[in-house]
Amino acid sequence: MLELIVISTLNGVLFGMLLFLLSSGLTVIFSMMGVLNFAHASFYMLGAFFGFQLTKWIGFWPALVLAPLLVGAIGMAVERYGLRNTHKHGHVAELLLTFGLAFAIEEIVSMIWGKSPLDYRVPALLDFPAFTIFSTNYPAYKLFMLAVSVIIFVALLIVLKRTRVGLIVQAALTHPHMVGHLGHNVGRVFMAVFGVGSALAALAGVIAGPALVTQSDMAAALGPILFVVIVFGGLGSLPGAFIASLVIGLVQTFAVALDGSLASAFGPLDPAAGPSVLTDIWNVTIAQVAPIVPYMLLVIILIVRPMGLMGTRES
Amino acid sequence: MRKLTLAIAVIAPMLGHAASAEDTLKIGYIDPLSGGGASVGEGGLKTFQYLADELNAKGGILGHKIEIIPLDNKTNPQESLVQAQKAIDAGVHYITQGNGSSVGAALSDFVTKNNSRNPGKEVLYFNYAAVDPSLTNEKCSYWHFRWDASSDIKMEALTNYMKDTASIKKVYLINQDYSFGQSVRTDARKMLGAKRPDIQIVGDELHPLLKVTDFSPYIAKIKASGADSVVTGNWGQDFALLLKAAADAGLKVNWYTYYAGGAGGPTAVKQTGLDGQVFQITEGFANSGNKAAMDYEKAFRAKVNLSLWYPRAVNEMRMFKAAAEKANSIDPVKVAAALEDLKFEVLDGGQGIMRKDDHQFLQPIYISSFGKLTESEPFDEESTGWGWHLVSKIDTPQAMVSTTCKMARP
């Protein structure tokens, strides 16, 4: 049992940190620009595919730097030529633009790389078990993922809260005209923020690609849970997203480990009643419903605390 | 004038299409071409297109050119029915599908209803991979034909092999949470319990179909259970990711699988380094040793750049041709009658028969293991350098189970 708890904690923290790496970009864009970017998971996917392709050409380490830069540039172009034009039509138009973009990116990716999973391998340098615990290996690559996530979290916090750049960026959100009058180019600030947010998603893609699966539906698989993370943590709150990612990672991992069901808690139903929908619900284990647990959390938090864990506003 | 040319430009191809539609024999291929099952569905599509090209090069079926119409069902039963209706409206009389027994059950039901409501416009459903036993038992239909061995036949063959393997003591079952996965788990429990009562089932897991991105939590559970063998019916990314997580955690067990050979599977097995410890049960495989099958595999790989996952699809299309020629018609009603009890030499050698009672094709079954290859085994998988190696061949008489089907004949 101890073994299962330790391993599940490790797995949960790791999954949580990956979620954070992804949601950090989304939450930065949202808190700065008020744009809920539906295409965020698609930038994550682009990161993974670019990472795969560049790894093939120039190796993993250059790809780790180059792929996020490329995707960041694409993100900036999307902001400059797409979002900026739709901005005047309000948030719904922006939302629809990113929504459509998500589909377009998925189609383009599957046109270029096909729909089969790619053979995107962990770099040889990190392809060894870092340590063995209860005779289970813990891959070095997963530790690397963990380290990158922590570094990004700290770096983002420092930039946003402690530097002039962060100050301007935050001011540009609430008082764009004032910031403009002070001589800053507000449009360029937004473009940079969107670019950085997309680049963060791409970074998550480059490092998650080899660990999970690099396939044209990977955006659709992770997209919904990202929204759970940022709503649960509080829209636009970076520490909130951090805590929410860890909570969801751990909850989901532990839910899988549990075999309890209503039947095991209260005893089986009277067999004379025969099979029905009720017996199905009665016998279903927590492990079986694990994937929907985060969404149940989402519903509960929206009822109990609509602004999320650390959110400041109610929108 | 411009309007007229435009109208002609638009209408002319339609007319041409209508004229050629009389000659071509359209087969609606309803399978996932997007979403989690896309990699498998796309491989199937390429296989059927290859088979159609092959038949067309030899004059098609009774002079009719075959055209495969790809229809994306997103592994969703509801979407499949929309696509099936679309196909029927476009004049399709034959549909083929494989991925997902939930889809298979919906399609079988749909085709049966369609045929009773529209006499003279019958549609046949050729099933090449949906292996839920119910499709040829309580839910059997006259209009449904299955070329893959049903999951209980496979489990029968697999447990016949496992019962003689003394080293198996603790078995863990992990399957996808839908009709097929559930039948694998119940059959495994029932048959292992009957053949090897000393084997302990230490875990019985169902996880959502094609939704899990990281199987590490499941692997931790398998490890904690102390299992020495895992039985799984997982396919597509659910298998590849399961093995990938096992490789990361260094889980060393024997894997008894239905679909380790599917997209991404071999790559993941190679990563685990489990040479000869991953078993698969199929109706044929690349290194089966049968000369004709191996030549076929070579030609297929050269053109499609994929392994032949579905020797049964070859059997399906060849038998379709044989039945049409026997009936001397491509009318679905006549073809269906000709298919019943049709005996056929399968691709990998040996005789199979389309059982009249339930329309289940009975055929020889192979158990193979994945690992390093010998001189006489030329085919590796997914450029891993490893390939399938024959472990056991189960002939047709030992690879059948009885049916409870009470066929309603038209």
- Secondary structure: helix percent of chain A: over 70%
**Largest sheet of chain A, order of strands side by side?**
1-2
User: What ranges of chain A have pLDDT less than 50 throughout 5 or more consecutive residues?
Assistant: none
SS class of chain B: alpha/beta
Distance linking N and C termini of chain B: 55 Å
- Order of SSEs of chain A: HHHHEEHHHHHHHHHH
What is the straight-line distance between the termini of chain A?
A: 42 Å
- The shape of chain B, in one word, is globular
Oligomer state of the chains in this structure:
heterodimer
What is the mean predicted local confidence, pLDDT of chain B? 89
Number of strands of chain B: 15
The largest pleated sheet of chain A is described as: 2 strands, antiparallel
Shape of chain A: globular
User: Number of DSSP strands of chain A?
Assistant: 2
- The biggest beta sheet of chain B, please? 7 strands, mixed
Summarize the structure.
The complex is a heterodimer of chains A (315) and B (410). With 315 residues, chain A is an all-alpha fold.
Explain the layout of strands and helices:
The complex is a heterodimer of chains A (315) and B (410).
Chain A: H1 2-33, H2 40-58, H3 60-87, H4 91-113, E1 129-133, E2 136-139, H5 140-162, H6 164-174, H7 176-181, H8 186-211, H9 218-233, H10 238-257, H11 262-266, H12 277-283, H13 286-289, H14 293-304
Antiparallel strand pairs in A: 1-2
Chain B: H1 2-21, E1 25-31, H2 38-57, E2 66-72, H3 77-89, E3 94-97, H4 101-117, E4 124-127, E5 144-146, H5 151-162, E6 170-176, H6 179-195, E7 200-207, H7 216-225, E8 229-232, H8 237-249, E9 254-257, H9 265-272, E10 278-282, H10 291-304, H11 311-327, H12 332-339, E11 343-345, E12 351-354, E13 361-362, E14 365-372, E15 386-394
Parallel strand pairs in B: 1-2, 1-3, 3-4, 4-5, 6-7, 6-8, 8-9, 9-10
Antiparallel strand pairs in B: 10-14, 11-12, 12-13, 14-15
